[in-house]
Amino acid sequence: MRLRRAILAASLVASPLALALPAQAAGQDTDHSVRIEGFASVEAGGGWSEGAVTVKNDADAPYTGQHLVIYFGSKVLGKDQVAAEYADGASGSWQPVKLVDQDLGVDPAGYQGVATDLTGAGVEVQPHSARTFKLRFKLLQSTHEGPWVSVGLQAFLAPTFGADGQAKNWTVQAPGASAKTTGLTTAFTGLPKSVPADGKPHAFQVSIKTANGFDWHLTSAAFFVWGGQKYGSMSGPAACDAQLDVQDPKDKSWHKVGMAAVGIGDHDVDLAKWATGPVDNRVLNARITLGKNFKTDTDASLGFGNFPGSTEMLFWTKQPIAAAPVEGAPECVDPNAPAPTPSTSSAPAVPASVSTTTPAAPAPVTVADTNRAELADTGSRGLGLTAGIAGALVVAGGAAIVLTRRTRRG
Prior knowledge:
elongated; single chain; mainly beta; 8-stranded mixed sheet
């Protein structure tokens, strides 16, 4: 399977809101419509993302008895992570919005988005006119992860809004909108775009920075080594062709991690254990080893973060790589192989009749030990992609996300 096909497959699955709302034919109420505008981006821990929601009435009679329901959807988003306000018209004053957690039956419970009955009452719109509500929201610090995907927005007109946050038997739906989540900057440092395929480890770092001192609670991640359309595999390179390791800062030991495209449940890079620094400026030491048979196409890359994830944030960071062939490289990588020691030979015998002075012995050659502790294998077994997607792949606001079966958190 090729990476492009996998992304396409993820983009074709249903919206999580379809799981929560009764299916109805689009455009069945042609006299009324809802439109969402604005909300280009939202910075975690930053200011407001502002837009507007407009209800239009093309009928000859006033439009009444309908609630304006707004959903803020994301894989990891609960009401403790969102604040929202609305204003009735351009000159209206800002009013707080009461939010309700959505629970679509996946893990973590109550963290699949939030909803609100915007005005708390039915919306009235006069004949052949429109009514616009300004709306703004921001992302708050909480004890939960993320959100690392864009926040999708949906608007509905519905006769009732239940205590469970569901719009019952909705009649009108707005085209969805999406606010790109910003404030997370991840980058590789010291990783050359051309990596020697010499069977030796090449060290680099992953830096994970956040704006506003925001703690995203990113406890785990995954690498994905993609050889390109010609050579790449969703299961990653063969074991002899490449290896990725991360370093434990406490004892300096190296730990082998996976290189395949995996679901969130199969992340094996333990950021809580292996990354150092404050929550808004963390660093992970890593190394990559390529063997003589590892080949790359022009679109080869190394990704770090989430896969499958949002179509906008497939990885927190991704860098093109190219394997540079090296003459005499070993068939199979072994980043813990000891460095070769200088060869020694016996000195020729000195005739007894020749008087000599024995020179001082040369200083011993010191080889830098980059593998101070024995390698611990903590990589995932098997592909991991199907296991990570065993729950379901869904799309919220145009972003593909992974929903896993609900498990009780400790």
